[in-house]
TrEMBL record:
Keywords: NADP, Oxidoreductase. SMART domains: PKS_ER. It comes from Microbulbifer marinus. GO terms for molecular function: mRNA 3'-UTR AU-rich region binding; NADPH binding; quinone reductase (NADPH) activity. It comes from the Bacteria. This is Alcohol dehydrogenase. The lineage of its organism: Bacteria, Pseudomonadati, Pseudomonadota, Gammaproteobacteria, Cellvibrionales.
Length: 343
């Protein structure tokens, strides 16, 4: 039976997460270069919150469907598309548009789902694993024996970064905000975990900790203290600013402006004399660079990691509860939405 409609979560414009509303849309004919996927799981990312509140530089203007990754089953293959057949299980990345029961995608953005992974694990994999891989290998130049500080180590990106660091012979040291998360990480076999104290700089000094590489997506004083704890030749890789996370459904612009004015700044002359550096990136840029993205995915395919940890599964209708949990900072591993495929 041909599917004629799909369900999506769409916002008329960024600014307030409450505007995100469910809609049913008629499906047009499949473009010949595309593949139609019946989505069984959607991976949530912190970037979704920043896009919905308008704090993300890549936020689309006007109405948009959030969502950067999904997993499901191929329903239909366009006349000029190849590489997949109806019934194939796939995971995929998309530059927005992922919060949907059906997604049309170019084959370049789809990856076969390993046989022993479920859809939620597939939807939890591409964006966060690519982010961790890019930070560690391309910018971080991780080598065996290097000590790597990884903030939010029980989160989506953080946990993948912990596993990849270990797989590449580095020594991961994770930080988290709660003793519960720290205990959970220890259960996963990571023995070096810090529960961040209010004065993180003092905590690092007291414990005499120094690092070759730091992965930071929090910002502010945590980032400053981490930079100060770098050894000579050390690198701070920055890829987010969770300290700007709104506590409500929309940003407190005054608070955000205050934080922005007080953001850490780095002096390149000091970096030369102290022999430490700061690097930063935003992977959304990669969506346009298909060849580079395929190369990164192929590299990742050669590192045998276990499937990602899905910490929280929500029915598709409960997107607001799922986003509230992610925004609260209490989630562990990945938060996933599960639409009934083929709606
Ligand atoms: N640049 C890129 O290309 C790129 C790509 C993907 C993700 N990112 C960034 O990487 C980070 C992790 O993304 P993710 O999707 O994997 O999310 P996540 O780590 O699963 O969740 C975010 C975590 O941020 C921490 N956090 C710190 N301060 C917070 C605050 N004020 N409010 C709420 N949470 C706070 C919390 O962990 P703890 O409190 O335990 O630290 C929370 O669990 C995000 O900042 C995201 O924007 C960047």
């Amino acid at each position: 039976m041909t599917t004629t409609h799909r369900t999506v979560w769409q916002t008329p414009r960024a600014g307030n997460i409450s505007r995100l509303a469910q809609q049913t849309e008629q499906l047009g004919p499949l473009p010949p270069d595309q593949i139609r996927v019946g989505v069984s799981a959607v991976g949530l990312n912190f970037a979704d919150i920043f896009a919905l509140t308008g704090l993300y530089s890549a936020t689309p203007a006007g109405a948009f469907i959030p969502g950067l990754e999904f997993a499901g089953t191929v329903l239909e293959v366009g006349a000029d598309a190849s590489g997949f057949a109806p019934g194939d299980r796939v995971m995929g990345v998309t530059r927005f548009g992922g919060y949907a029961s059906i997604v049309d995608s170019e084959p370049d953005y789809l990856i076969p789902l390993p046989d022993d992974w479920d859809f939620a694990q597939g939807a939890a994999w591409p964006a966060q694993t690519l982010t961790a891989w890019y930070a560690l290998t391309r910018l971080g130049a991780l080598e065996k024996g290097l000590q790597v500080l990884i903030h939010s180590a029980a989160g989506g990106v953080g946990l993948q970064a912990m596993k990849l660091t270990r797989a590449l012979g580095g020594i991961p040291v994770g930080t988290v905000s709660s003793v519960e998360k720290a205990a959970w990480l220890r259960e996963q076999g990571f023995d070096k975990v810090l529960v961040r104290e209010r004065d993180f700089a003092r905590q690092l000094t007291r414990e005499d900790l120094h690092f070759d590489l730091v992965l930071d997506a929090i910002g502010g004083k945590v980032q400053q203290a981490s930079f100060a704890a770098l050894k000579p030749m050390g690198r701070l890789v920055v890829f987010g600013a969770a300290e700007f996370t709104p506590t409500g459904k929309r940003p407190n612009y005054l608070k955000a402006a205050w934080r922005y004015l007080r953001r850490p700044r780095y002096d390149v002359m000091d970096m030369i004399s102290s022999n430490r550096s700061v690097l930063a990136f935003n992977l959304i840029w990669l969506w346009e660079q298909k060849a580079q993205m395929r190369a990164l995915l192929a590299e990742l395919g050669r590192v045998s990691l276990p499937p990602p940890h899905v910490g929280h599964r929500f029915p598709f209708d409960d997107v607001h509860a799922a986003l509230d949990l992610l925004r609260s900072g209490r989630s562990v591993g990945k938060v996933v939405l599960e639409p009934d495929a083929h709606r």
